[in-house]
Amino acid sequence: MKVDFQILFCDQTFRFLTFIITIDEAKRRQSFGSCDGDLSVDALPILSDTSDLLQDTHIEKLACRLPARVQGYPWRLAYSTERNGTSLKTLYRNLADVDSPVLLVIKDMDNQIFGAFSTHPFRVSEHCYGTGETFLYSFCPEIKVYRWTGENSYFVKGSTDSLQMGGGGGQLGLWLDAELYRGTTTKCATFNNQPLSAQQDFSIHSLEVWTFE
């Protein structure tokens, strides 16, 4: 949240007036144009491994939309269905010692690329977790980023049977099954997103999870 300060001189004293963006204004800015304008970075981030899903253009467009606190950090491949098999339990296990945000990348059977940024590593949880920096994204083919609306805090919830992101009114922004083979994407109140895939119920071709360390 941006805070601006103005100093006014009155009665030979300094009075500080702080103008804080209201919640309504924050929501307006976050929901204004789900697709951010084209941005660029001076150099691509360093990747510990070659991605089977992301091309340089994908990486560049994602990198400059990440929170400032993780920009500049190397990307480490923590999980890949190509290398680790298709198992949500294995994904959780590979992230057990991770203490950084994570980037989920999915390629479906229609060759569409989409996913999510989570402020916390995926884990089994009784309640939802994460912060307002969490977002969903999709390349269709240009990148669209769906950020937190402020409507609820259903950012991420993990179980042994599924992983879900976003919610409200029975709708889930993104849902993956335990075998990481099938998923669902619908418009949800958390992110006010459009479905990330051309098919609401999609089949997963491959999946990667990157950390920032």
From TrEMBL:
SMART domains membership: TLDc (SM00584)
Superkingdom of source: Eukaryota
GO CC annotation: nucleus
Any single biological process term in GO: response to oxidative stress
InterPro entries (UniProt xref): TLDc_dom
Every TLDc domain range: 52-213
Protein name (database record): Nuclear receptor coactivator 7b
Organism: Seriola dumerili (Greater amberjack)
